[in-house]
Design goal:
The complex is a heterotrimer of chains A (about 230), B (about 600) and C (about 290).
Chain A: E1 3-14, E2 17-28, E3 32-36, H1 43-50, E4 56-63, E5 66-67, H2 73-79, E6 81-84, H3 96-103, H4 112-122, H5 124-128, H6 139-152, E7 157-161, H7 169-184, E8 188-193, H8 196-201, E9 205-208, E10 220-221
Parallel strand pairs in A: 3-8, 3-9, 6-7, 7-8
Antiparallel strand pairs in A: 1-2, 1-4, 4-5, 9-10
Helix pairs in contact in A: 3-6
Chain B: H1 2-14, H2 21-46, H3 55-72, H4 76-100, H5 105-124, E1 135-136, H6 151-174, H7 176-186, H8 188-193, H9 198-224, E2 226-227, H10 229-232, H11 235-248, H12 255-275, H13 282-297, H14 302-314, H15 330-333, E3 357-366, E4 369-379, E5 384-388, H16 395-403, E6 410-415, E7 418-419, H17 425-431, E8 433-435, H18 448-456, H19 463-476, H20 492-504, E9 510-514, H21 522-537, E10 541-545, H22 549-555, E11 558-563, E12 566-571, H23 573-578, H24 580-587
Parallel strand pairs in B: 5-10, 5-11, 8-9, 9-10
Antiparallel strand pairs in B: 1-2, 3-4, 3-6, 6-7, 11-12
Chain C: H1 3-34, H2 41-59, H3 63-84, H4 94-116, E1 131-134, E2 137-140, H5 141-163, H6 165-175, H7 177-182, H8 187-209, H9 219-234, H10 239-259, H11 265-279
Antiparallel strand pairs in C: 1-2
Chain lengths: ~230, ~600, ~290
């Protein structure tokens, strides 16, 4: 079974800073992978590079067999990768419905209403607050909206950056249950998390990312201590 | 370089002997606009505050001197300074309003434009001072009335003005004033954290600039003999004032002069040749194109680019900042205490001393989010206190509250037994509390040494001495070999050390370190840990935020744990590692077994 | 104090406010999306005026029809300026952007000077002198039509921004540029369209006032400053703020001309500007920026 996403010796950074180098990993179709590591290890940088939000300085990114590195973010979303960024990054003065529909711009117009139905089924709370301005939602509801917005693009790979950040444990559980459900329905997920206990509770394959960005190990089951 | 300047000066002094009177007038304009540009440069270039209303100062200065001469018979040689003083007063008002109310960039531009326009409209409507038609000065040719029959006298006066403004800028550049302005321009918040009173220095720059510009108003009035409000206060004049330093190089000494030498002849010639054919505004099109070109291709201006080209040719290593005197043996041999306020003792903590920092009931909310709630925190003298907690727990907010970047909604902070709530960051720094930033903020265009010098100036106002102290600190943090490297090109680890060194140079009693280890590899972390230990050993108390558990456990005497803005635990590293609440909220099972190194 | 005069001033101000609003909406759109202040805004409007003048004198097209062409032409100009110039400094310090647009303003103003000369011009429109009496006050038909058209254009713009996909994308980019990038928006294209639409607004506004107001190349500067006034008072980036601000400033200037000498009317708006800058820089409807 070939990999859905493969990173090979990825190098990326900001200005003069190289934040990650030599990162290699593989994500297979249907998997749920967690990318963990200490603060500043380069997890967000890796996600951003995959999504085309940061230029790739060296290495390759392959998605469904095709090269991604060098493409712009618009093209990558069109190829089937959706990103739920750290801090949600919603459009605060626009309604929940607007936010979701905007997420679906890249996807086929005909399916938009169906996908919206799906998102509302997964997150009934969003349906209730359909006409509410996204900036007035609670932290948990914003996270749901952000995930919903990502799902609206009908991606084959969903990337999430620290979805549990700043949320109460009850909300975190709800979100992760939903993610598990989505993953069970066939969506491949890659998740960046700093919150260590979460990793073991979600029964995912773990890939460790070393501080300063040297080569990451392949997959190993569950715990491996996070090197610091 | 010096010889080139002296030679050029000699040439300029001798020129009138060989030039036609028309050519003399062109030079007068070159010097005059060079003078105005240099005056503007002090606040627009060095301080980085874009003012597009400087014509107002020309107007105030000129009108004052003209009115005093016409109505009171006061000689313009004195009236000049009265006018300049009034212009400086206006500058102080505009500066205070703008800077005190935090107007930056576009908003500040608009403020200056608004004031200039108000002056223009007001003067146009006051018939007592000429109204819309303006004032006319009768030509008497009397030198005591600042009037000369020979154009060449104006030449020398204009040259003298230009040189005076340049000398002022030169003096400012070399002293603390100029260095502080450069720091403010690079990163005002970072400068504040190093003890720089940004408001004071920006205002000072504004006052000096407007005073000099006001002097120019008198020259204008008594050279052209007519003053019209639309010309003297109008935006076109403001544009003429700013375009020369911008094209030549804002924030450099020779930029405004170079800019004037480039643009003034261009303007005059196009006015001469194209103006006759009815193409009045042609030279302004050229201005516009040049401005666009400069922004796109030469944002620093012509002079810095020229300087780099010349340096490459002569293979002289680039000099950043004022040159230091050759052969200064005292610099190296001084072994001054680099850190710790002279009064604090290095070594073990005196057990009965008051805590150096006490925070009580500290609270702060942002909109709906309670970022910090009722925090009680104390740092003992000579202690290393660790502050940990998950992302979003409020740790950096606490730092911002302690260092004066944020005001608490409730609670009190006292530092060395004195309440510091409500004090601005620069005042807190001067009291001995220094901080680093989570995302490092070097002054990117300054060298390592210059960066640290900004910190050192807080304790040593003389630029040369500050430089010497800064040298010691730079060695201390291991950047000695990279002293003259531009900070923008440093690696992350070097930037972290620079940030540390800069704060250290302010000779703090308490140092707040915000995630200094984030993003560093294990070797770099070891180096920083050694450095922090050394700083601590010299008597500085430290409060550090860190995610690197091993380091925090190893370094700290005590640890405070924050979660959702509240303190959930406090104690020794061993206490914390076993505390059930902490384990649950943050650490996870793995760390229970991580023994402190 | 003559009540009639006050009422007249109020009415005239209100009617002219439609144009001010349209002008301000264009500026606030550009700022809201790109955080760029278009210093050449007024000069672009002057070009709209001159364009309608050309169309009126050379092709005999009434400004109330030719405004469409002017809007289209200015849209193209805006696109060009954005793609060719502004795009390159989008990440540069704000001072650089200000100076760039100042340069564009200088070029536009003086090209107009060279092309059309310094004398004030006005377009003669068949609606020109007609007036309508409402009791003690009268209404310039020309101003009324201008007001109506301006309002219609503003409504059309709102529909575009709130009901179309592209419009919503533009609003999203204004709300959170990074978020727009994340969901795969071609942000460069959005910037270009927004700038073009903003320029089109003043192109239309220029054509609409070309028969009411005499204009000359330096008019551009005062129009720019008025636009800034309105947008700051109403709130940078706020559509509603631009609308209400336009009406407010127009009425304030009009009443200012009634109570004070006409030449002092700008004093009122500048003083108001300074007060707003100091005490409520976010304006009436703008977002508070930290």
């Amino acid at each position: 079974m070939s990999a859905l996403l493969r990173l090979d010796g990825l190098e990326a950074g900001y200005g003069d800073l190289t934040a990650v180098s030599g990162v290699s990993l593989e994500v297979r179709r249907g998997e749920a992978v967690a990318l963990i590591g200490a603060n500043g290890a380069g997890k967000t940088t890796t996600l951003r590079a995959i999504c085309g939000l940061l230029p790739v300085r060296a290495g390759r990114i392959e998605f469904e067999g095709a090269r991604l590195d060098g493409l712009g973010s618009a093209q990558i979303v069109a190829r089937g990768i959706a990103h739920v960024p750290e801090g949600r990054q919603l459009f605060p003065t626009m309604t929940v419905r607007d936010n979701l529909e905007l997420g679906g711009r890249a996807a086929d117009r005909r399916h938009r209403d169906d996908t919206l139905e799906l998102v509302f089924t997964l997150f009934p709370r969003l349906h209730e607050r359909e006409r509410q301005l996204a900036g007035t939602l609670s932290g948990g509801e914003q996270q749901m909206c952000a995930i919903g917005r990502g799902l609206m693009a009908r991606p084959r790979l969903l990337l999430l950056d620290e979805p549990s950040l700043g949320l109460a444990p009850v909300t975190v559980k709800l979100i992760f249950d939903t993610l598990r459900r989505v993953n069970g329905d066939g969506m491949t997920i890659m998740l960046v998390e700093q919150n260590v206990p979460l990793r073991s509770s979600s029964r995912t394959e773990a890939t460790c990312s070393r501080t300063g960005g040297s080569c990451s190990r392949g997959r190993g089951r569950a715990s491996g201590r996070t090197p610091t | 370089m010096r010889w080139a300047v002296v030679a050029a000066l000699a040439v300029l002094l001798a020129l009138p002997a060989v030039l036609s009177s028309y050519a003399v007038t062109i030079f007068i304009l070159i010097f005059f606009y060079g003078f105005l540009g240099q005056a503007w440069n002090i606040v627009g270039g060095y301080a980085g505050q874009l003012s597009v209303g400087h014509a107002a100062f020309v107007g105030v200065g000129g009108y004052t001197a003209a009115m005093l001469s016409i109505e009171a018979g006061l000689t313009p040689w004195v009236g000049m300074f009265v006018g300049a003083a009034l212009a400086a007063l206006l500058g102080a008002i505009i500066g205070y309003l703008g800077f005190r109310f935090g107007l930056r960039g576009f908003y500040f531009v608009l403020l200056t434009v608004a004031f200039a326009e108000i002056c223009r409209i007001a003067v146009s409507n006051i018939d007592a001072i000429g109204g819309a038609l303006g004032l006319y000065i009768t030509f008497t040719g009397d030198p005591r009335q600042f009037q000369f029959r020979d154009g060449r006298v104006y030449y020398y006066i204009a040259l003298a003005l230009m040189l005076a403004a340049t000398a002022t800028a030169w003096a400012i550049e070399r002293q603390r004033f100029g260095i502080y302005l450069a720091a403010i321009r690079e990163d005002e918040a970072a400068a504040e954290a190093l003890g720089v009173n940004a408001l004071k220095y920006k205002m000072l720059a504004m006052v000096v600039s407007s005073f000099l510009t006001g002097l120019g108003g008198t020259f204008y009035a008594f050279y052209l003999f007519s003053l019209q409000p639309n010309t003297l206060f109008g935006i076109p004049l403001s544009v003429e004032i700013i375009i020369r330093p911008i094209v030549g190089g804002a924030g450099t000494l020779l930029g405004p002069i170079l800019g004037s030498f480039i643009l003034t002849p261009l303007a005059e010639l196009s006015r001469l040749y194209l103006g006759q054919g009815g193409l009045h505004g042609a030279h302004l099109i050229a201005y516009g194109v040049l401005l666009i070109g400069v922004v796109l291709f030469l944002p620093e201006g012509a002079y810095p680019r020229l300087r780099r080209v010349l340096q490459r040719r002569s293979r002289v290593p680039p000099v950043s900042g004022p040159p230091h005197p050759k052969g200064c043996p005292q610099e190296r041999s001084r072994v001054a205490p680099v850190s710790g306020h002279p009064r604090s003792e290095p070594g073990s903590r005196p057990p009965l001393q008051m805590p150096v920092l006490v925070a009580r009931g500290l609270s702060r909310r942002f909109g709906g989010l309670q970022a910090v709630a009722g925090l009680d925190l104390a740092v003992e003298h000579g202690e290393m206190l660790g502050l940990i907690g998950p992302n979003g727990a409020g740790k950096t907010t606490v730092f911002n509250l302690l260092s004066g970047f944020l005001t608490p909604d409730a609670g009190d902070v006292s530092f060395r037994d004195r309440s510091i709530v409500g004090l601005p960051p620069h005042a807190i720094c001067r009291l001995g509390l220094a901080r680093t930033f989570q995302i490092v903020r070097p002054f990117p265009r300054m060298s390592v040494l210059e960066n640290v010098r900004v910190g050192a100036l807080a304790r040593h106002p003389q630029a040369l001495e500050a430089r010497a102290r800064a040298r010691d600190v730079v060695e201390r943090v291991g950047l000695g070999a990279r002293e003259h490297v531009t900070a923008g090109t440093l690696t992350l680890a070097e930037r972290k050390r620079l940030e540390l060194g800069r704060a250290l140079a302010t000779e703090p009693t308490l140092l707040l370190l915000d995630e200094v280890m984030a993003g560093l590899n294990p070797t770099e972390i070891e180096t920083i840990i050694r450095l922090i230990r050394g700083i601590h050993a010299s008597g500085v108390s430290i409060l550090l935020i860190e995610h690197n558990m091993r380091a925090v456990m190893a370094l700290s005497h005590r640890i405070v744990v924050l979660s959702f803005g509240e303190k959930i635990a406090e104690g020794t590293p061993a206490d914390i590692a076993n505390h059930p609440k902490v384990i649950e909220a943050y650490l996870g099972d793995e760390y229970v077994r991580a023994a402190p190194a | 104090m003559d009540v009639t005069l006050v009422l007249q001033g109020l009415l005239s101000g209100l009617l002219f406010g439609g144009v001010y609003s349209l002008m301000a909406v264009g500026l606030t759109l550009i700022f809201g999306v790109m955080r760029v202040v278009n210093f050449a805004h007024g000069d672009m409007m002057v070009w709209g005026m001159y364009l309608s003048y050309l169309l009126a004198t050379r092709a005999g097209i009434d400004p109330y029809l030719s405004f469409v062409v002017c809007a289209a032409a200015l849209f193209a100009l805006g696109l060009l300026v954005q793609r060719g110039l502004v795009d390159r400094v989008i990440d540069a310090p704000h001072e650089m952007q200000i100076l760039l647009m100042l340069g564009v303003a200088l070029v536009l103003e003086n090209l107009a000077l060279v092309a059309f000369g310094p004398e004030p011009t006005r377009v003669r429109s068949p609606l020109g002198a007609a007036t309508l009496w409402l009791g003690p006050v009268f209404v310039d038909i020309a101003r009324l039509v201008t007001f109506v058209v301006a309002v219609l254009l503003t409504v059309a713009l709102s529909l575009f921004l709130y009901r179309t996909d592209l419009g919503r994308t533009i609003r999203a980019a204004a709300d959170n540029t990074y978020g727009a990038l994340v969901i795969g928006t071609d942000v460069r294209r959005v910037y270009a369209v927004a700038f073009g639409v903003g320029a089109a607004c003043v192109g239309a506004a220029g054509a609409l006032v070309s028969s009411i107001l005499p204009f000359q190349p330096p008019t551009g500067l005062s129009l720019s400053v008025t636009s800034f006034n309105i947008v700051i008072i109403g709130g940078m980036g706020s559509l509603l703020g631009a609308l209400i601000g336009g009406l407010l400033v127009s009425v304030a200037e009009s009443l200012g001309a009634v109570f004070l000498k006409p030449s002092l009317k700008e004093l009122v708006s500048f003083s108001l500007l300074i007060v707003i800058l100091l005490f409520r820089p976010a304006g009436l409807f703008g977002k508070r920026t930290s």
